[in-house]
Every structure is written in structure tokens, then in C-alpha cells.
Design goal:
Structural class: mainly alpha
Number of strands: 0
Radius of gyration: 20 Å
Largest sheet: none
Shape: globular
Distance between the termini: 36 Å
Order of helices and strands: HHHHHHHHHHHHHHHHH
Helix content: over 70%
């Protein structure tokens, strides 16, 4: 749903007076809001209802995107980001838990890797036209109007959830536990399972990609106008589609994705580090595709890998606990970037330095993770 406003997000915030340092700052609070509500929403999902939790997430997104439409200063933006952060917390871990247990209900649990890959394919296929439409609306009607379409997309998502999601992905009554027990078992799983600790560390390393999220429009504006950003961004969305296809065709057995996860981090890091030094728009797009292909492969791989090691009765709670740890890292990364950019010009040179540092660190962490990867459990 956010993809509609993805290409106009930073230009819109800059149009109402925010700097790139401000953008990282408010996004740091977005992740901080997720941290506060992450585990609570996962516990509620396992002990009461995953579907109800997913509906609440969609509802918060609707209000968050609507607030963006009215935003005219940093405090409105902060309110919108906090609202979206709460919505993300309601969905994080819970949606994947519902999918895995719905597959399990129908005897298809071994196909979860393929299903997550298919989700990446669909996301990549829909994101490009959505972004182009959002950029066209922004160029012709104003940069705040894509938020209307984004909010309507969230409404459509809520309608789909209400009409089509059923109890197949809920925790079965015979194994359901209360909130405290779900949290206890999640903490125990994290403490006892090397694979889950490793995948959480990989998620922390993955946060380095956030350095790209809010800086690419300003960097690409050296070559194209705001109205044309979506057309430049479309090949990068295609990379998400391509990554999903590669993951699906690889048919990696569930629980054996560790090496592929490391490779995805390396690919993403190399693309990020080199992007700022691209000699022209063409190579800049190529390196952007490399970066996005890596991060696009990471999501379905890590969803399959982590869920392979978690039991149904606390699956959403663990997903939220794992996300909590990773989201704290995301907040730290964004606040660090904000501090680094504070007082510095929003120039390509400074953006290049941020990308280089984040990309090199991501590759280094990936190499460490490779040598620490656990044996298949």
C-alpha cells in the first residue's frame, strides 16, 4: 500500500520543510513505535485472534496514511509515522504466522518457502505500476495526493482481510496458550535455538539497507525530475519480482536457507556501497537493481527459515519478539544516520558516504554470519 507514495515520499517531506536528517529522525520514531507495540500485539494474536490483529494493523495504516495528506510540518509527519508504526507492529510476525499455520491446516506446511517467494513476486509485479501511478498523481495534482490513493489501498487491504481471511491460520484450541506462556516459550526458543538466534542476528544486519530508503530520490534527482522518479524506480521493483522468482525456483528446503540468506545480504551490500559511485544513470539503476534483488530475496528466505524452527502456539509472539530485536536495530541505524547528516547538506557527496559505510558494514556482517551459521536443525 505504501508503494503508491514511495517515489513521492521524500520529495513531499522536503516540500513541507523537512531535511534528509529530519526524514531519518521521524523514521527512527516509526521504528521506535513498532518496538513499543511489537511483542504485545504478537501475544494478543496468539492468545486471542490473529485475524483481529491483522485487521487492526490495516486500520492503523488507513489513519496513518490519511494523516500524511494533511501534514504540513514535522510534527504531523511524526504523528503519521507513529500511527503507521503501530499498524506495522500489529502485522509484523502475525501475518506470516497466519500464512504458515493456514498452510499447516491444509497439510501444505512444506510449501511455505514457495508461498513467501510468490508473495515477493506479486509485490514486485504490483509495486512498479503503483509507484508510477503515484508519481503521476504527485506531478499533476500535488505531492500530497498520492497519500489519498495509498490510504484507499489500505482500505482495500482491510476489505480483503475481512472477506477472505478465515480461521485456518489461527492457533488451534487444543494447543492455544495464554499471553504470558506464549512469551515464555518464545524467549525459551530464542535462548535454546542457535538457528533462531542466528536469523535474528541476520535481521539486525539487514537493517543497514535502511540507509537507501530515504536518500535515493535526492540522489537520483541529479539525473531525473521528481515526476520521472517512478520510471527510474520501476526496474528496482522488478528486482523484487526477479528475487522472488529466483527464490522459488531454487527450491531450498525449509530450514536450510542460511547460506542463501548470507548471499542475499552480500548482494544487497555490494549494490548499496557501489551505488554512489555509479558513472551515470544507467549504471546507477543497475546497481540499484542489484541492491534491491538482495533485499528482495532476504525477506522470503528469512520468513521461511525462522518459521521452520517455531511452533504454532507461539508463532506470532516469537515473530514479534524477533522483529522487536531487529526493529531496535533499525531505530538505532536511522537515528545514527540522522545524527551524521544533521547540519550537513543534503548533497550527493554526503549521501554517497552514508551508502558506502552502510554497504561495507552490511557485507562485513554477512561474512561474519557465514562463518557463524548454524548446522541445519
Amino acid at each position: 500500500m505504501f508503494m503508491v507514495a514511495a517515489t513521492t515520499y521524500v520529495p513531499f517531506l522536503q516540500s513541507i520543510g523537512l531535511t534528509l536528517s529530519d526524514v531519518s529522525w521521524v523514521n527512527g520514531w516509526f521504528w521506535a513505535a513498532i518496538v513499543v507495540f511489537e511483542v504485545v500485539t504478537g501475544m494478543w494474536a496468539d492468545s486471542h485472534s490473529r485475524i483481529w490483529t491483522i485487521r487492526m494493523g490495516a486500520l492503523f495504516f488507513i489513519f496513518g496514511h490519511a494523516i500524511f495528506f494533511f501534514a504540513d510540518n514535522i510534527w504531523w509527519v511524526l504523528a503519521a509515522e507513529m500511527m503507521n508504526g503501530v499498524g506495522f507492529a500489529f502485522l509484523s510476525g502475525v501475518l506470516q504466522a497466519w500464512v504458515v499455520d493456514a498452510l499447516k491446516h491444509h497439510g501444505l506446511e512444506d510449501q511455505k518457502g514457495e508461498v513467501f517467494a510468490n508473495a515477493a513476486i506479486v509485490k514486485g509485479a504490483l509495486s512498479a505500476p503503483a509507484a508510477i501511478l503515484g508519481a503521476w498523481i504527485g506531478a499533476h495534482f500535488g505531492l500530497r495526493w498520492p497519500w489519498v490513493l495509498s490510504a484507499l489501498a489500505a482500505v482495500a487491504g482491510l476489505i480483503i482481510v475481512v472477506l477472505f481471511m478465515n480461521g485456518d491460520g489461527e492457533v488451534k484450541a487444543e494447543v492455544k496458550v495464554n499471553k504470558k506462556e506464549a512469551l515464555r516459550r518464545s524467549l525459551m526458543a530464542l535462548r535454546m535455538s542457535p538457528a533462531l538466534r542466528w536469523s535474528t542476528a541476520a535481521g539486525l544486519a539487514f537493517n543497514m539497507v535502511l540507509a537507501f530508503n530515504h536518500y535515493w530520490p535526492r540522489f537520483y534527482e541529479q539525473y531525473v525530475s521528481v515526476a520521472d522518479l517512478a520510471y527510474v524506480w520501476s526496474p528496482l521493483y522488478f528486482a523484487l519480482f526477479l528475487a522472488g522468482v529466483v527464490v522459488r525456483r531454487a527450491q531450498i528446503p525449509s530450514g536450510a536457507e542460511a547460506s542463501a540468506l548470507v548471499l542475499s545480504l552480500v548482494v544487497s551490500g555490494v549494490g548499496l556501497a557501489a551505488m554512489g559511485y555509479a558513472p551515470g544513470l544507467g549504471m546507477l539503476i543497475v546497481l540499484g537493481v542489484v541492491h534491491e534483488a538482495g533485499r528482495g530475496a532476504f525477506q522470503p528466505l528469512t520468513s521461511s527459515y525462522s518459521n521452520h524452527h517455531v511452533s504454532s502456539e507461539y508463532r506470532a509472539t516469537f515473530g514479534s519478539l524477533q522483529a522487536l530485536i531487529e526493529d531496535m536495530g533499525a531505530a538505532v541505524v536511522l537515528f545514527t544516520i540522522s545524527g551524521h547528516m544533521n547540519g550537513r547538506a543534503d548533497s550527493p557527496e554526503n549521501i554517497r558516504a552514508v551508502w558506502l559505510g552502510a554497504g561495507v558494514l552490511l557485507v562485513a556482517l554477512a561474512v561474519i554470519l557465514y562463518f557463524l551459521r548454524p548446522k541445519q536443525e
